[in-house]
Amino acid sequence: MTRQAGRRGPEVELRPAHLRAFLALAEARHLSRDLAGREGPDYLWPGFRLEEVPVAFYLGSRETFLFQHPDPPTEFRFIDVPVPGLRDVPLYYHRGRLPYLPAVGPVVIRGFSVATLPLSVFRPGVPAEALVAGIVHEAFHAYHLGRDLWKPDLALLSRYPELSAVNNALGTLEGLVLHDWVGATLLGVRCPRPVEPGTAGGREAAARAAFEFSLIRRERRGPLEDDLIEYERRLEASEGLARYVQFRALLGASPPAAAPAGSRDREGVPAGGYSPGPAFETLSGRETYARVPGLIAEQVDKLSGLNVHAAGAAWWRFFHTGMALALLADYLDPEWKTKAEQGQPLDSIIEAGVQYDGGPGDERALELLKERYGFDERLESEREFGRRERRRKEELLVTLLRGTGTRLTFDVSSLIAEETWWEAGRFSVVWDPSSVETVTSNVRIHRHGLRFSGYGTELRFDDGLPVVEDLKNRLFHVSVPWKGNLTSRGDGHQFSLRQPSEFEDGLELLLPGVSARARSGYVQDTGDTLYIKITR
Fold it and tell me: Considering its fold, how many domains does the chain have in total?
């Protein structure tokens, strides 16, 4: 299908991934409005209205589709696409590269926070319910973009003790406590509400889970530095709350377990459940969110595997504990969302009602928890894994630095002479923390691309080309699959990278998987690497 973008804009070829993304957005809007009508406007989160959040779908650096933006930039052209549920929603299109995309998370476009989703996500085989929930998740991130109270300091990722056996074994216990409570309380429940004390899954069970979790977390955090604790808490808020909102959306759309197939009430809504919009049936071929119970169970199951052999130890495990702590807070404190908005950590909120005895009683309770969840065996397993993993990372680093093809080293230390990466406000480094391997506190490996830009310098490394980042010396090492003659442009002239060269009026470099632009510097072949020093 082809549509004309504006009167004089280019024709746009719409492929299946485009249509799946558009249909998922239409259904996400329908679900958001339905939940607000049935369960109250603040069911997902106070003030959050998905249909008011701009959303961008993009394909690498090639094209971008922008929805729900009240004032799109001039480089975007209007396009008319008749998608069920989106007929009254303006759609804007841009072909070509944009400086803020690809992105990891939301971006600001013309003063508005925009949720960004790559079109590669909308591939066949992904359940329609998961696509819809993913849009809800990313829209919530955009809704809260810029909240420094929740923003984690990613510079601490490389310092986090991800192979600490004690930290991981206790972290697993934290997840197991939350797994057991969430599973017993919320599996099979639609649109949950906190219930009265004394009933199954009620406040008493929540208070017990809060006590057990807090005991373990207090033990685990004993050796951690304060800034690492703050890093954990901010991750639990920024990512955990987005997963909480996503989880609540799935709960609200859950089909009723006991309703006979095809049964409907007098208004035509599936008996006791949610009636999807027309876009959902087009997207999925189904009338109900039949995959939701499985998706919810998957989220709950992940809590049981946190930190096992360092799984997610420094990063994504806090997404899941944050979600579970927020679900737990629903049963403990009716004002918890206001407190979270003000910056109070989630673990602090659920710990507020915990009563410790400060003596042998707490110690005995902790020992019983360790026995229940097999702490000693887990600790020994983590120690053995840590030894193997350190060797593997060292060997991986050597392999990458000796990689086939041609090795390039970009030195940007002169650009940030007196600043660390995370304090250099003049520059931006866009990377995916979920795909990083930390070798040491100063060396990490990026597997899914990286972009460094600022003051006329831009380095782009494509997804799939591993990049070794030396934080201490401010170097990027990469091997490109090319052994032949490598040329570039400097000061307006073409030159061979194999020859020593100096440039004072611009460098442009385009190689397989790597592009670079800088104002001045020099190039030198050291034998081991093509060393490219950027001075400004």
Answer: 3
Amino acid at residue number 79: I
pLDDT at 505 (0 to 100)? 75
Rounded distance between C-alpha atoms, residue 325 and residue 318, angstroms: 10
Same domain, 348 and 364: yes
* C-beta separation of 117 from 57 below 8 A: yes
pLDDT digits (tens, 9 = 90+) for 349-404: 999 999 998 889 999 999 999 999 999 999 999 999 999 999 998 898 888 888 77
Crossing angle of helices 165-186 and 375-401, rounded to 10°: 120
- pTM attached to this predicted model: 0.84
The residue among 127, 114, 120 whose CA lies nearest residue 54 is 114
Q: Write the DSSP assignment of 406-464 as a string of letters.
A: EEEEEE-GGGGTTS-GGG-TT-EEEE-GGGEEESSSSEEEESS-EEEEETTEEEEE-TT
Same domain for 207 and 102: no
Of 294, 268, 320, 302, the C-alpha closest to 129 is: 294
**In terms of residue numbers, what domain contains 94?**
16-127+138-146
Q: How is residue 469 written in tokens?
A: 């980042």
Residue 324 buriedness (CB in 10 A; 0-12 / 13-18 / 19+)? buried
Residue 452 lies in a domain: yes
* pLDDT band at 165; cut points 50, 70, 90: very high
The reply to whether 112 and 193 lie within a common domain is no
